[in-house]
Specification:
With 266 residues, the chain is an alpha+beta fold. It has twelve helices and eight strands. A hairpin with a 5-residue loop joins β2 and β3.
Length: 266
């Protein structure tokens, strides 16, 4: 077995050991080839030159290099409302688990990437490019297998995004919440939300959890649509079912408002 294949296999097994669901096993084994995986990154910065250094690197180097690897569309967002600002969030989708787990290895083989990104990649310790980078690996929900690109993203028109993470107190409750969210997705769409992706976290912090993204024309529109959602008969019926209402399935919610950069592909 080649080193590349060994690394992909090892990382895939590691991811699945965390997830442990039959659906995850089928997808990673190649039985569900249309179901995407997502790598979500957060770059935490300090105010000052780090912002420009990161922005230039993402726009001119990282996004084009990811596209050359077949990873597209790449979302690049700044944190507008949420803890630990300033921060950049990046979303990398792919149907290939190998591409996401070996992305840094493959980027390092890209001469153009290494050359144009030198200022960021070789930033000295006394002037680092960022404070810390965190990443999460997710698998798309079975009934929402792919990212949906909003029309506003294609048109590069005004838009904001909401990134929500639901932590559960147990694996049982987490699986039930994922199941419940598969139905919630239809209610979101009926209420006029722009559902972007739904991901079950395989590797990351504060497990078990799921993360999903919704889009809007503005934060004011977000408030109106959430009002329509919580008052909809469909949501009241779903949330009142004994299967989901016997206890609190979610122990903590993290809610972020993100603004796409001018070069974001989402």
């Amino acid at each position: 077995m080649q080193r590349r294949e060994f690394l992909a296999s090892t990382l895939a097994v590691s991811a699945l050991s965390v997830a442990g669901t039959a659906g995850s096993l089928r997808a990673a084994a190649g039985g569900d080839k249309d179901r995407e995986f997502y790598q979500l990154r957060r770059y935490h910065l300090t105010n000052g030159p780090q912002r420009k250094l990161c922005d230039d690197f993402f726009r001119e180097t990282l996004v084009p290099a990811l596209n050359r690897l077949g990873i597209s569309p790449v979302g690049v967002f700044t944190l507008t409302i949420g803890p630990e600002t300033p921060s950049f969030y990046l979303l990398l989708p792919s149907v290939s688990l190998e591409k996401l787990t070996l992305v840094e290895f493959n980027l390092a083989q890209d001469e153009q990437y290494m050359k144009t990104g030198a200022a960021f990649l070789s930033a000295p310790a006394k002037e680092p490019a960022y404070v810390r980078m965190e990443s999460w690996l997710m698998q798309a929900f079975e009934k929402m297998p792919k990212l949906t690109l909003p029309a506003a993203s294609t048109a590069h028109s005004a838009r904001v995004f909401e990134l929500r993470t639901y932590e559960s107190p147990s694996d049982q409750d987490h699986k039930l919440k994922v199941e419940m969210m598969q139905s919630e997705g239809g209610i979101f769409a009926n209420a006029g939300f722009w559902p972007v992706f739904y991901g079950d976290t395989l590797i990351g912090s504060r497990l078990p959890n799921l993360t999903y993204m919704l889009g809007y024309e503005s934060t004011a529109e977000r408030d109106r649509k959430w009002g329509a959602f919580v008052n909809s008969p469909e949501w009241k019926s779903l949330s009142g079912q004994a299967r989901y209402a016997f206890e609190e399935l979610v122990s903590n919610i993290t809610n972020l408002i993100l603004t796409p950069t001018t070069y974001s592909q989402i």
